[in-house]
């Protein structure tokens, strides 16, 4: 039996739930889903996978399967995992809190917030010699439309510069998101890591989440497996990076996803900015970010950048997602506004994508998620 057939009943339940807003699954259905995860991680050759299900803006189910390290220690719902670029969604949500506070205007030049001109800061002196830096806004940084390079170390001279004219095209930029952090810290005098802990993690009960390494994470920590099957240790990140330094657990990330989809802690106006289509995405794939190759079909689903997320219109209405990837990490948060429903998927392997389309559909039904755009290639088949 094909995976699609095995999940047929679950898919129908999810579709009905999206209409009635009733709980997506009964307890027995979650047991079936958990058993299927057990099977899929073996078939897909994934060491460990964790899932959280959000229904009606509340955490409905959390599970972790497989192993977290080469010793075979079990992956649990309390295991520290690397969030990677899902950090950007959490950071954007914090920025919207500053918007509600009246401290940030998404569409003002960052020059209005910095006490000194950009060339006066050593880290941004290269960029500051180009007057176009004054056209940069927080919205452009969080929607990857600033034109900035993805990572300065890709530059032959290790310089940060514009790769595109600002405001003309979506092109993924970790440097841009970290610049937004710099503006908040330098311009407003706020320490982003501390403030995200105070305003997001602590109130939500995310006790095992941090934007910087904590020694108490060592006891239950996920290493990862590269595509060649070699284990690689978890990186202890020693500095806060808005683009991707968050360590968390699937239990904590489920709480954050529930908060984000329900608008917790934000005014309705600020929350609407999160998944408003702020900037159209015309590129055929997310990576490489400066490959100028377009896909006209993106317009059919309204594919666009929100703030820290990607938004689109699918069979169930407005939806958004955010991924997080490296060689030993593959994460996905996908939400649909109708019914305030999400699925959160974390894996300590760069090949979690083998399972994600199947698992996401089994929980939420068909959302029309542009998987090929996210992963830049045809997804491998998880099982016959």
Q: How many whole angstroms does the radius of gyration measure?
A: 20 Å
For the secondary structure, the number of strands is 12
Q: Give the DSSP E fraction (strand runs of 2 or more residues).
A: 15-25%
Query: In CATH terms, what is the fold-level topology?
Result: Beta-lactamase
Structural class: alpha+beta
CA-based shape: globular
How many helical elements? Answer: 12
Q: Which range best describes the helical content: under 10%, 10-25%, 25-40%, 40-55%, 55-70% or over 70%?
A: 25-40%
- Oligomer category: single chain
Describe the structure.
The chain is of the alpha+beta class. It has a single domain (3-375), classed as DD-peptidase/beta-lactamase superfamily (Beta-lactamase), CATH 3.40.710.10. The chain is 30% helix and 15% strand. It contains 12 helices and 12 strands. It has helices at 3-6, 8-20, 27-43, 87-101, 125-128, 138-142, 174-188, 192-201, 250-262, 268-274, 356-364, 371-375; strands at 48-55, 58-66, 81-82, 224-225, 231-232, 247-248, 279-280, 304-305, 310-314, 317-326, 329-336, 341-347. The strands form 3 sheets. It has an 8-stranded antiparallel beta sheet, sandwiched between helices. A hairpin with a 4-residue loop joins strand 11 (329-336) and strand 12 (341-347). The longest helix has 17 residues, at 27-43. It starts with a helix and ends in a 9-residue tail after the last helix.
């Amino acid at each position: 039996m094909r995976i699609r057939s095995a999940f047929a009943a679950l898919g129908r339940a999810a579709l009905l739930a999206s209409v009635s807003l009733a709980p997506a699954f009964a307890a027995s259905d979650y047991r079936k889903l958990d058993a299927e995860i057990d099977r899929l991680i073996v078939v897909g050759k994934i060491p460990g996978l964790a899932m959280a299900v959000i229904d009606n803006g509340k955490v409905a189910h959390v599970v972790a399967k497989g192993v977290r390290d080469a010793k075979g220690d079990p992956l649990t719902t309390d295991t520290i995992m690397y969030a990677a670029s899902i950090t950007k969604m959490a950071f954007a949500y914090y920025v919207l809190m500053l918007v509600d506070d009246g401290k940030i205007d998404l569409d003002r030049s960052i020059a209005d917030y910095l006490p000194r001109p950009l060339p006066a800061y050593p880290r941004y002196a290269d960029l500051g010699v180009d007057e176009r830096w004054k056209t940069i806004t927080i919205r452009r940084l969080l929607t990857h439309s600033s034109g900035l390079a993805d990572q300065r170390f890709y530059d032959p001279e290790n310089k940060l510069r514009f790769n595109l004219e600002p405001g003309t095209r979506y092109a993924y930029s970790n440097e841009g998101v970290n610049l937004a952090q710099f503006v908040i810290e330098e311009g407003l005098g706020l320490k982003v890591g501390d403030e995200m802990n105070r305003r997001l993690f602590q109130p939500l009960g995310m006790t095992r989440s941090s934007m910087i390494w904590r020694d108490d994470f060592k006891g239950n920590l996920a290493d990862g497996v590269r595509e060649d099957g070699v284990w690689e240790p978890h990186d202890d990140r020693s500095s806060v990076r808005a683009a991707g330094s968050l360590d968390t657990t699937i239990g904590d990330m489920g709480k954050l996803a529930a908060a984000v989809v329900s608008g917790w802690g934000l005014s309705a106006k600020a929350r609407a900015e999160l998944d408003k289509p702020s900037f159209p995405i015309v590129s055929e794939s997310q990576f490489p970010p400066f490959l100028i190759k377009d896909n006209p079909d993106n317009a059919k689903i309204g594919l666009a950048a929100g703030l820290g997320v990607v938004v689109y219109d699918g069979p169930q209405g407005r939806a958004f997602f955010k991924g997080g990837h490296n060689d030993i990490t593959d994460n996905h948060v996908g939400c649909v506004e109708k019914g305030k429903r999400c699925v959160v998927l974390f894996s300590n392997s760069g090949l979690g994508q083998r399972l994600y389309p199947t698992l996401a559909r089994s929980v939420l039904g068909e959302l029309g998620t542009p998987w090929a755009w996210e992963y830049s290639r045809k997804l491998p088949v998880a099982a016959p």
